[in-house]
Amino acid sequence: MRVAKEGHYSLFEEKEPLIERSLDRRFCNSYEIFKLVRQQPANRSTSDERKWRVNNATTYNCRGAFVKFSVILLALATVVSAAAQQSGAGAPAAQPSDTHNSRNSLDWAGAYEGVLTCAECPGTKTRLTLNPDGSYRLVTQAQGSQQAQKSVSGVFTWQPSGNAITLDERGGRQQFAVGEGRLTLLRPEGGVSQAPAGNLVLTLVAPAPDTGDLEQQLGRYRWTLVLATDANHRRIAGLPPGQDRPVVLSFAGSRVSVQGPCNLLVGGYQVTAANQLTVNAGASTMMACDPALMQADSALSNLLAKPLQVQMIGRPSAQLHLTSPGNGTLNFTGEPTPESLYGAGTTVFLEIAAQSVACPNPRSPNNRCLQYRERHYDNKGLLVGTPGEWKPLTVNIEGFTHREGVRNVVRVKQFQGPPSAGGAPSIVYVLDLVVESEIVKP
To answer: What residues contact 158, with CB distance under 8 A and at least 6 apart?
Structure first.
C-alpha cells in the first residue's frame, strides 16, 4: 500500500477499506485533520477531493500515532524509573546529603537570653532554654516589674525548613528563627518582624552541657537556693528562709545532700539521658524548728519527691533550674567547690576554743583570731590521743561562723591553696560538719 505524501494526490483505489487507510483513528485529533482538509489543493473533482481528504488523514494519523505512542513510552519509562528508585527500602527518598540547615549544622541547644518587644511595657526579659530532646523552658518577666517571673516548660517542633522552631501552646506558639548563637522572634506567618532588631533577638549565654558530663558539672558547685515558686508561679514562703538559714544543694559522686530550712536530707541521685534528676531520700535529721521553717521544709521535700527537669547555665555565673512535673521551680546559684578549685583535699578535725585571741602581727589592732588544736578519732569515732597546745588560726574556715563563748569540734576539708605573696604555700579550710558544740562559761 502506498501512502500519499502531504500536499500530493493519492493513487489509492476507492474500493480499499477505509480502515486500512487509517492506521488508528483513536490517536487522531479531528481538529488537525480538518485543518489539513482546509489546506487541500484547489480545482479538484469531488472524487479526488474525497481521496485527498482520506489519504492526508491517513498520513497525519500515522504521524500522530507515532508521536503519541512515543510520548506514552517516555511517560511509562519515567514511571518505571521512579518506581525502581523507591524500591528496596520501601521508604521515601532521603534528603540529599549536602542539605544543611540550622537543625543539623548548628550547636543550637542551650540557654538564650534577651529583652523582647512588649506592646504594653518597656520590654520582656526572656530566657529560653532549648534542650537536645526537643523540650524547652521559657522564663519571662516584664522589665521593671516587681511581679515574680513566669516559667513554663513544654516541647518545640522544627519547621520543615529546619531553620526555625515553634513552641507548643504553653509557649504561645511563638516562632523563632535559629541562627549561630541567636534566636530571632518571627511573626506568626513566619517572617521577621519589622520592630527594632535589638528587641527581637535572644543571644546564647550558655550551650547545653553534654548529658554524660552533667553529673560532673553539678558536683563542681555548691548550690544555694535563691527562689522557689509553685505551679501558679507564686513564691513559696520560707524558701529560702533567709541568709542566716541558707538552703544548700551539694552533689558528691552518687550522693546528694540537701540542707533545708530546718533539717538535712542525705541520699542518692540519678540524672537520666533526658536531663531528669531523681533524688532517693536516704536519711534525714529530725530537728524541731519553728512552724514556718517546718512548713518550708515540707514544701521543699514535696518538690524533691518527684523527677525534676534539670537546666544548668554556666555563664556569666553558674545557675541551676529544677522544674517539677507540676511546674514548680527551684532556682539556685552556684559557687565552685574547693575540690574544683584546688583539687582533692584531706579531712581533719579541729577543736575551736570558746574564746578568740589577738592575732599575731595583725593588719589592724582589732583583728581577732580563733584558737584551735587538732583532734584525732579512730574508725569507731572514738577520740584518741592527747590534744595539743592551742594555736592561733590565722585563716578563716569557709562556711563556719564562730560565736564567743561556744566551743566547737568541726570536721573540715583541708586544701593546698595558691601560694601566698611570699611564695609560701597556703592552706584553705572548708567546713564539712560541726561535730560538737558546748557553751563554756567564763
So the answer is: 103, 164, 165
Q: What would the mean pLDDT of 328-337 be, rounded to a whole number?
A: 91
Alpha helix segments (H runs only) across 39-187: 46-86, 102-105
Q: H helices within 87-213, ranges in order?
A: 102-105
Residue for grid cell 569515732: 381
The H-assigned helical ranges of 87-190 are: 102-105
- The region of weakest confidence among 131-145, 200-214, 366-380 is 200-214
CA pair distance 440, 442, nearest whole angstrom: 6
Position 309 pLDDT exceeds 80: yes
DSSP symbol at 415: E
DSSP state of 210: P
Are the C-beta atoms of residues 192 and 186 closer than 8 Å to each other? yes
Q: Which amino acid is at 72?
A: I
pTM exceeds 0.85, yes or no: no
- DSSP H helical segments within 87-157, as ranges? 102-105
CA-to-CA distance for 111 and 241, rounded, in angstroms?
28
**Residue 386 above 80 pLDDT?**
yes
The whole-angstrom separation of Cα 302 and Cα 265 is 13
Task: Give the C-alpha separation, 213 to 229, whole Å.
Answer: 28
With contact defined as beta carbons under 8 Å apart, do 369 and 357 qualify? yes
- C-alpha 198/C-alpha 186 separation (Å) is 13
Instruction: Say what the pLDDT of residue 258 is.
Output: 93
**Which grid coordinates belong to 379?**
574508725
In one-letter notation, the amino acid at residue 211 is T
